[in-house]
Amino acid sequence: MLIGVGSTLPAQNLNVIHARRASFKCHRSPLNPSSQKPVSSVSSASSTESTREHLSNLEKLLQQTNQPKPEPAIKGSSNGLIQPKGRGLQEGLNLSRIWPEMKAAEDMSPSHLNRLKRLLSKTMEYSPRNDLGSRWREYHGCNDWSGLLDPLDENLRREVVRYGEFVQAAYHGFHSNPAMSTDDETPLPRHVALPDRSYKVTKSLYATSSVGLPKWVDDVAPDIGWMTQRSSWIGYVAVCDDRREINRMGRRDIVIALRGTATCLEWAENLRAQLVQIPGSKDPTRRVECGFLSLHKTRGAHVPSLAESVVHEVKRLMEMYEGESLSITITGHSLGAALSLLVADEISSCTPDAPPVAVFSFGGPRVGNKGFVDRLNEKNIKVLRIVNNQDLITKVPALPSLFIREGSEQQQQKDHLWTYSHVGTELRIDTKMSPYLKSNADIACCHDLEAYLHLVDGFLSSNCPFRSNAKRSLARLLHDQRSNVKQLYTHKALSLNLDRDMFSFPMASCLPSPSQ
């Protein structure tokens, strides 16, 4: 019998409903710690059930902020179903029927609502800045980050994300003013909005291609002349200039940040994949990719080469802060990750008394052969490569060293000479770990720097799911990769009355630092 408006349920029916509600409590979850385990459950929860449970709790977080109080039921459609009065289309959907793993959400506590709003805000949140003074060399890689990666140490996670944001500042600094004036002998000073106000920019860095396009290309498309210019701003050098931060880190840190590919000629250099001997090296077996070496060593019409600029600035800063404990941290994404290795090698070659050098690379390709790897290891250059399983860029160029043919030692040495190898310690993440990103996210998303930082912020360990207390804002991820974010979450974000304009994400509102 259908229940009309104003009807009441018999007492015995209410008892049945309460009994059923009690039997369908959710599993305990990091996102819903107050929930209890059901009375009847399987003996051991599989990873699939854990994922469904996590999605169910996330669905709870993403519910409509102000849900109306239930109104009396009314007669529904011709099929006799009871439809709630006054509810919107989204609330009327039975998610548990569309997605069997989704349970109907109950109430959302104010704390869950506030957490969701923080995740979708423009404000970045971080773990506390712990004192690294006594262990800074360990976090800088002196022991190859042994014991810090799986599970990922909280302090190291924060440092990795922070260095990634220095690279984001390099991207923003370039795209805000990509063109270089060919009339000036030296480029005009730039301003870079750093994500960390305790650092100041001391030097702008430029990369120049050894190849060029015909002049008629610029005549045909003058508005995109920056795409065909041989020299381009590629990053900067910054130094920590805040005494409290220096004390917290245990040393004064010098950061070199390099962006990824942006111009046509940089793409052209990426494709020059033949291995060539390192200039000045007495060992012909130590080789690197021709295109990367070109961008590293070529001088521009009005700018020095990237190699010259970095060495000159590092020497200047070493003299300025003589007697202090220093470190050099080089960080880059994609092409910038490849150039970071060449910059590290250049610094160690030209400044034998250089401070400890560490590289934090994101989505970097292979750069050289095994001889180049041995060269960096001999110089004690520490490299932490952050690699996404689904990122194809990390698998190029050429074949890895595991494809070396069996045979004589002489044959293997010959194969090593012409085969690319990765260098350093690896922190491996996976797009599929994120509860927000689609498991079949496209190539661009899997290589995107913000997606990398999102995954690092959520990484716990190789055998654990995405951490529930991840603090990084989702605003930039939604803006940059909306098509790769699960539709359930993009729709729910909009249902929270969050305007689309909110996701036109600017850089952090930091005071710009003048470049020299």
From TrEMBL:
Residues 34-49 have a biased composition (Low complexity). One of its GO terms (molecular function) is phospholipase A1 activity. The keyword DNA damage does not apply. It is found in: Plastid, Chloroplast. Residues 255-398 form the Fungal lipase-type domain. It comes from the Eukaryota. Keywords: Chloroplast, Hydrolase, Lipid degradation, Lipid metabolism, Plastid, Transit peptide. GO terms for cellular component: chloroplast. GO terms for biological process: lipid catabolic process. Its main location: plastid. InterPro entries: AB_hydrolase_fold, Fungal_lipase-type. Residues 27-87 are annotated as: Disordered. PANTHER family: PHOSPHOLIPASE A1-IBETA2, CHLOROPLASTIC. Belongs to the AB hydrolase superfamily. Lipase family. This is Phospholipase A1-Ibeta2.
